[in-house]
Design brief:
Blueprint: E1 2-4, E2 53-56, H1 58-76, H2 80-89, H3 94-103, H4 105-112, H5 117-129, E3 134-135, E4 142-143, E5 148-149, E6 157-158, H6 159-172, H7 190-195, H8 199-216, E7 220-222, E8 231-234, E9 243-245, E10 251-253, H9 267-278, H10 281-290, E11 292-293, E12 300-301, E13 309-311, E14 318-320, E15 327-328, E16 333-334, H11 347-398, H12 406-432, H13 437-462, H14 476-479, H15 501-537, H16 542-549
Parallel strand pairs: 1-9
Antiparallel strand pairs: 2-8, 3-4, 5-6, 7-8, 9-10, 11-12, 13-14, 15-16
Helix pairs in contact: 1-2, 1-8, 3-4, 10-11, 11-12, 12-13, 12-15, 13-15, 13-16
Length: 550
Amino acid sequence: MTLHLDDSFGAGDSDDDCAWCDDSDDGTPILGASDDAFAALSQPVEQANETTIVCIEATKQLDVRSKMIERAKALLDVRTEEAEALLSHFSYDFEAAATAWFEDTRKVRETSGLIDAKTRRENSEAAMSSGGARGCGICFEDFPGDALTSVGCAHEFCDECWSGWVTSKVNDGLPVVDTRCPMCPAKVSESMIRKFLSDKDEKKFDTFLRRSFLENNAKLRPCIGVDCECAIAVEQLPSNPVSVKCNCGAEFCFSCQSEPHVPVNDCEVAKKWLEKIHSDGANSEWMLANTKGCPKCHRPILKNGGCMHMHCSQCHCSFCWLCLGPWDNGPYACAGRCNKYGGDKTGDENRRKRARDSLERYMFYYERYRAHEDAGKKAEQDVERFKDSVLDILIDLQRTSKQQVVFIMDALRQVTECRKILKWTYAYAYHEFADDQSKKEFFEYIQGDMERCLELLSRMIESDIKPFLPPEPEDDEQKQKASPPSPLTEELQDEKYQYAPEKQESLEKDFALYKARLIDTTAVLRKFTDTLVSEMAKGLLGARNIDKTD
């Protein structure tokens, strides 16, 4: 299931309509808790579509972070720099931070680098009581008391040393967000870091803050689109992988940030499949299936001629291709007379057979995966072509309104979505059904229902619609094509086309029947798809019911 992003950050008339919005109602999500209770920021949801998903532009990401800090400050009754340190330390998981804070405040302060008010006051009083000039802890030069700065610990440094310290941290990169005192674990607040940075370095610091916020927050994912700096946010972590689509058009799995792989609910399975088709794993299997190892040096050798006499170019060993036995150059024949069937196979032959079987199995699923992927890309192009031209032509020819032809777009989008789902069912089958025959048969049955209905709907959109569209121009190049042209892939005639007057009424009636059939088929395909996705999510429990009835 693909969850599309809301166009705005709050869709209601009041603040309560958006759990992420601040009381200022400026529409910016805060990913925080409601006023009456701590929100379950890391609780999974049973259904992926029960969580709200929004897109946060790069310019608003630090604003979202600031609102989270302000909310934590109010609910935990702490200072701003303490709220910053707590959320950063707990990866912006407010519930974890709040729970740990109320259970053992002292321990949380120690691990987060926070100094309590009493210690801060004692350190300040001790520094003031010394009177006169005091030495910088880094350069050891004496300065007036008001020229030295501390983060609340007992260590004071001059402005120049502080500037050098925080600038070096900015140059180190992302770790600058957790800058500590040069001499102890005390946390340096963001406001203090900014105080000693140049304008150029402060912009770098903001960039690292934004990156840290996106990379450490489990409810945020940076968009994978080219040159897109948006982030995708979820209100609650989904229990199953969710496909999300950014405003830039990039679509990806929120959990693993790879391409969407619904209905495969295990990101590891999807990862293994993608690695297999993108790596040289299949090439290795081809090598095993089509080459044999030299019996002397064991280097793989590919037979490129008709003769069975093989000569290794590395160790110059002569052997028989069929049995790998030595070759007798006298009678120019295999010394082992391997034309006689011995009845038992060697381990090397068994290895090659297993490799061939593995390769054939992989190619079976990969071929169908790729075919539906290519068909899905074609369907996406069809959606745009219909939207741009074909619908307008149908509206004119059928003398109807846009609302009366929207069913075609619904069918096209259903085809597009089903192609994406169906291609991943083959990846799922490759990894899941090596041994369980009953589940395999049940899966193939419901997968087959969906696939047959999908092909029927595709044919109805690509071919059955032709009588209601203008005839396509014919030329020599088009006549030479093996497959008939489609109105979805060829430009329609530029001139205004009208039905023949005597056929207008008949074509309008036929179009009404076509509309009814297309709507019905779309609904059936949606039902088959929902059944397949639901069964896969439940681990194909329906196979057990069939076994019991049998």
